[in-house]
Amino acid sequence: MAGDLLDNKGRGDASWSWPAIHPEGRKFGVLAVGISLFFLLLLDWEIIGWPLLLLSAGVFAFFRDPERVVPQDEHAIVSPADGLISLIAEVDPPQELMIDDGTGNAGMPVGKVTRVSIFMSVFDVHINRSPIAGTIQRIVYIPGSFMDAGLDKASEENERQHILIERMDGTQVGFTQIAGLIARRIVPFVKPGDTVGAGQRVGLIRFGSRVDVYLPAGTGSKVLLGQSVIAGETVLAEIGTQKLIEGVAQ
After folding, report:
1. Which of 79, 86, 209, 221 is catalytic?
2. Residue 209's pLDDT band (cuts 50, 70, 90)
3. What residues form the membrane-spanning segments (predicted)?
4. Does the active-site annotation cover 56?
5. What is the pTM of this model?
């Protein structure tokens, strides 16, 4: 199905398939299987070997990389991550996304914008995708602590990586990959100057984390607090649209 065009009129051909395992995770899965077989076959310690074998399956599942159907709408900002909308707030963008970085590329303008935070549990897909089509203007990695990614202050204190993307019309969307209690490595797939499409894979965070999205000024969230979202598919916002949307948990 990769690369196929599907629409809301029923055109196209969709079918289910097993998700691929991203190459970044294959080495961890193979290592876990090897350790499991060592305990099972060489030491005959089944009480340890079988749980480790189940853990190996979990490692492969964590690094799964399913295909996604990305909306082709120039106004849409799609979710960069799978997970739960844990925070929505009006904030100033991080300094790293606003200040002059010396490259001549302007950062996000000063002023409050809507920040949408997506919490990724260990059960979610951890491949992150670009929220818009455009050019990677900057990537800024910041070392930090590993507190609970669900806390608001994790945006400023945890290990994190800021990415700023700019469309051809100058519209900018910034987002931040934030490590959590278990996550210990942020892995980028892109670099400044790269051109990306909406929904294109741009990186991953190992083992539980959070992604903050900073919407352009004058743009509000179309998702609700507590809603589950899917990377590359769920529309977080429409550029230039800002209105109150309410929902009921049931």
Report:
1. 209
2. confident
3. 30-63
4. no
5. 0.88
